[in-house]
Amino acid sequence: xxxxLAAANWKMNLTLQQGETLLNEITSASIxxxxxxKAVFAVPFPYLSFAQSKLxxxxxxxxxxxxxxxxxxxxxTGEVSVEMLKSINVNYIVxxxxxxxxxxxxxxxxxxxxxxxxxxxxxxxxxxxxxxxAIREAGTQNDFVAVQLKESLYHLSAEQISKIVIAYEPIWxxxxxxxxxxxQAQEMHAHLRAALSGQYGSAVxxxxxxxxxxxxxxxxxxxxxxxxxxxxxxxGGASLIATEFVTIIKSLK
Length: 253
Fold this sequence. Notes:
Layout: E1 4-9, H1 16-27, E2 37-43, H2 48-55, E3 61-65, H3 82-87, E4 92-95, H4 98-103, H5 108-120, E5 124-129, H6 133-138, H7 141-153, H8 158-161, E6 165-168, H9 182-200, H10 202-205, E7 210-212, H11 218-225, E8 232-235, H12 242-250
Parallel strand pairs: 1-2, 1-8, 2-3, 3-4, 4-5, 5-6, 6-7
């Protein structure tokens, strides 16, 4: 079975003390992850080392950075490099989140550069893609996400792309309370896997985890994750509530 992930994206939320309380509540719950399952916590940069220390001994629990810069090093005040993240043993980095694309104008080419640096460092990228409401309403979402994959990922070799995680985010469902139905999620995930298969072959495409990100919560996680091409979730608001995220983790197949 493909790796299944419940990934928490804290975004720009929680003080250190609030984060500690949240992690204490989650790690004290009776969660037993199987070998193919991971719980990943994408916490703000100042909390990375702290979160790692809190998760020591929790099997299958990992820490992720929420972003990185697309240059290796240099005079880029306020930015964080992949090399810095590697030096503190971060194993996952989320890139291309819709908020980064929208508010910070991140391009597909910049994301390609980030992918290269992340893979070079031996870290797993969680690459986000997805369409806004206008694209969904126009019925062109399949072409839209196919371009995102092509321009950011298709320069990779089959070996390289097999080391990434993809997160599909219907942007119209992030933080809105709207959620793609399980059928809609499966339809897009199957499209993404078919696109990857067309580029790299089905043997490679079938190994790549594809997460759903868009108002995942305890009440809908099991149904979403039950779909054959949905391999877990990238979770925003619900990941800030211990009981919600524990249920979501336990919903992994």
